[in-house]
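Entry 14: structure prediction run for Oxidoreductase alpha (Molybdopterin) subunit. Input pasted below.
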Amino acid sequence: MNDLEKNKPETEGQERHIQENTNFARIEPYTHPAGGWGALLSVARNLKRQEVFAKGSITLMNINQPTGFDCPGCAWPEKKDTHAFNFCENGAKAVAFEATSKRVTPEFFAHHTVSWLAEQNDFYLEDLGRLTDPIRYDAATDKYVPISWDDAFKLIAQHLQALDHPDQAAFYTSGRASNEAAFLYQLFVRSYGTNNFPDCSNMCHETTSIGLQDSIGLGKGTVTLDDFDQADTVFSFGHNPGTNHPRMLGTLREVSRRGGNIIAINPIKERGLERFQDPQAAIEMMTNGSTPISRFYFQPKIGGDYALLLGMMKHLHEWDKQAILAGKMGIFDRQYIAENTVGFDEMLKEVDRTEWRDIYQYSGLSPENLESIAKMFCESERSIFCWGMGITQHRHGTANVHMLANLLLAKGQIGRPGAGLCPVRGHSNVQGDRTMGINELPSAKMLDDIDRVFNIKSPRKHGYGVVETIKAMYEGAVKVFIALGGNFAVATPDTPYTQEALKRCSLVVNIATKLNRSHLVCGKDALVLPCLGRTELDKQLKGNQAISVEDSMSNVHLSAGRNEPASKNLLSEPDIVARMAEATLPDSKIKWRWYVEDYDRIRDSIEEVFEEFKDFNGRAYQPGGFHLIHPANVKVWNTPVGKAQFLITPLSQVYNDQENQFSAQYTKSKVYTLMTIRSHDQYNTTLYGLDDRYRGVFGQRRVLFINQQDIDEAGFVADQWVDIESVFSDGVKRVVKSFRIVPYNIPSGSLAAYYPETNPLVALSSHDQYAKIPASKSVPVILHAGDAPEHFNLFTEVDPENAEKKVET
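Run finished. Output tokens:
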């Protein structure tokens, strides 16, 4: 299945043009493996582009080191035995763009209106450099103007104190925020009186958190890196580690080289799941070799994962019955099931009721391929299930996660070395923020513990997540929006509606290191507050400080930057939060600024609230930090019934809901299923360039990946420009224009295109039933012949009337 051909590396002559323009944009096959020389040259180009070739190279030596800083990119954990070059290509891009020598000063804003900046593309905004001073939007001049820190905090306090109720404010968190900042943030907000905590996890792995909480009692993965050393088989469902978590490829490479099986299950072929050339493997680099990653690669149609997983269980069930009838040991681990679970027999009854023809139809896989997947899982004594947004961002995302847990529970492979659940999270501390209490649905126990330690009365009413916050802002129920990082205005679905919702707020505050499009979507009043980055020294009264993060495998460790701050007028995130709290809550007994003098004090209070953080400082200062034990790994199941639960949703319910998103009478055109994806020069909504090297796309982003058969049947041709229209039953017209057709290895009926350009197509009402994650991986769309774009600025082709139509959630 894997191509072992040795390929030549990219050369410097392949330098890409950084402006998106049809004269320079091109599509050409990329035949090299993931990583390798292409990655090294990309790192060098980005360091040069950010004018930090020497400084950036030194900074990279400190990334993911025991006494260095945690990568501001993904949440993949570090090995215990770290080496000098413990970073990947996209982590290096994140560091280069943070450590950049470029600056966005008040003088810059004096010469540029917000309206003009809004016409520029997102790469232009990111490439401008670091913010240096707090600024306030002046509607009279349509410009940002300087404001002092004290006046900024007074303004925030005035707006928050003027609200009729604390629930009229919402407090967003990006997964980049540290444990210390997140803990102070939730303490401030609950002291203020609300649980309105929209969080980036509401758009990515909330289905994982809720699904695993339902199934095994805690919404986190169960494996560590050590388990990959013992696994027989690693299943990769719906994610692209080569771009989104490149350091994961090093782990998968080791599994492959020792003879373990890696099974990729993903609608679109991704280079990182096929072959990897490790830049740190001298022999591979010198011989231009590579290591095969996936032994087998299966391509279900978009959204077909639930049918695939249920089909795997149906095969196991049939083989189990056959084995027992033959007097052999069954497939299922019945002792484990009896001692640790409930609901097994009820689940099997639903499996029995499901017809094979429906499983094949909805999965898009042949009977032979589905049986092969099930057989490989059946024969594996130690299996790891890894997954990303391809599992979670559906209307049935929680049901997908339930089925992943069901399969491993049925074989007793949760709590077994070398086996378990591995959700691959994005932001470097998105899991830690949740652990620290950034949760719109807090448990009563956590609130009781917070109140006990701080002598406050936290609100018990559950708050708004992302979807509810957008709707509440649009309808006037939320009037103040504060964002601790992120790019809310474009990361969210239904872009025109969301941006109109933000504009209706009385105050929008963004805490950030770099300028992004959200800062250009102003409420009636708006602030941008610049903060320190991960790479920078954080000097407080008691000396240089370290923050902490929790990676995707529940490892907690410290992070301390070494670079001088980009500006003398920057504050750390904990300091900004503390000063907001102090200004807003003048009668609070909490010593907000005292905490910021020494972050050890924050960690001492975290330890008092969360029992799993006992001796937080003592353990955090050990090299590599410490691991938070997952209760399921010691057979403790914190579910309402005290055991793990088998949970299943009927197949017909899952896919009838999917199809009911649009009316059959709404359109006579062929309806495709679109998934939104990242390019390789992208981290979430941050653009580091305009290339998608592994997919052969250069100098452009408005492309549509489509099966050649679908191109032919629709009467289109490669390189033709088309408009994409989503066809939800709410009647709102959502169209993005001028996307270039790119034939690609993707199942018929399935499409892929980059976000945030396609986020305007995602209806706010289209989300998972339980977690309310936007269904960005299953958008029903039709295609129209379009025109070549006059320019490539984001969102300018979207129908502005879209924002004026009410979307029911």
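Notes: Confidence is low (pLDDT under 50) at residues 1-23, 792-809. Will compare against the previous run tomorrow.
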